[in-house]
Amino acid sequence: MQPLTIDFIISLDGYGSAKGWPGWWGLEGPEYLGWLEELPEQDHPVLMGANTYRVMSELTAGGEPGTDVLNDVQKYVFSSSLAEPLGWQNSTLVRTDAVEFVRRLKEESERPLRTLGSVSLCRSLLVAGLADRFRLVVFPVITGATGSERIFDGYPDVRLELVESRTFDNRSQLLEYVPTVLDAPPLG
Q1: Where does the Bacterial bifunctional deaminase-reductase C-terminal domain lie (predicted)?
Q2: Less packed terminus of the chain by CB within 10 Å, N or C?
Q3: Percent of the chain with pLDDT over 70
């Protein structure tokens, strides 16, 4: 069975995006972009929801640095609002239950899987026990006035075991964990 990594970029206060801010909050830096280009999983299939698909396909078409590597990657887009054919190459529209589709895909895929953004999709996959890694890159901004898409709202309690950390460009922090969804908080 192939592993699934849930990937998020977030502000320090836990938002996935913010109105008026550029991609990566304008802080992508050469070390971070270099890391993205060197990721061994950059050719692994990507799972995303409709909103992320819309945003990322526009960023890629607009030449946003670091996004062009997604053109050749297989993308599975979970949506009831998008229509076929999807305009971004190598994109497959999935209208069936995401949890069941990903469970089957983990068994059948030749490569590990990863997500891109997609807050509610990732929450569903984590709750279903399908997430093997949980990776965040925390950017040093607080977007309390303009932030949107609070990443962790609606999540269950989750214990995280840190397996990797790194600082990019003396400002952004990579944190990679093995997640364990808890039935209840541990008794103290």
Answers
A1: 4-172
A2: C
A3: 98
User: What pTM was estimated for this model as a whole?
Assistant: 0.90
d(CA 121, CA 96): 13
| Amino acid type, 51 | N
Measured from the Cβ of residue 9, the count of other Cβ atoms closer than 10 Å reads 21
User: How is residue 21 written in tokens?
Assistant: 């801010």
The pLDDT tens digits for 158-170 are 999 999 999 999 9
Given the structure tokens 């808890």, which residue do they identify?
A: 182
Contact predicate 130/103, CB 8 Å: yes
Structural contact between residues 118 and 49, judged by C-beta atoms closer than 8 angstroms? yes
Kindly report the CA angle at 148 between 16 and 127, in degrees rounded to 5?
55
Higher-confidence residue of 79 and 148: namely 79
Q: How many whole angstroms separate alpha carbon 124 and alpha carbon 83?
A: 23
Q: Which domains does the chain have, with CATH numbers?
A: 4-181 (3.40.430.10)
What is the predicted pLDDT for the residue at 166?
97
